[in-house]
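Duplicate of earlier report; V-type proton ATPase subunit F input re-posted below.
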Amino acid sequence: MALPASAYKDRQFLAVIGDEDSVTGLLLAGIGHVTAPPDSQKNFLIVDAKTENAAIEAAFD
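Output:
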């Protein structure tokens, strides 16, 4: 059962920098979250060498 949004208001950010397999494992283990459709917001961003800084900044606004 999901907790209400108010339960998450005091949570801290966590950044993970690692190889693709390790980061994928962490997401599968539960640190990543995707909300229900239709908006399907996620709390993570996959970044590679082609990702622009503006896209990274916009993801965490």
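The chain has two helices and no strands.

Merging into the original ticket.
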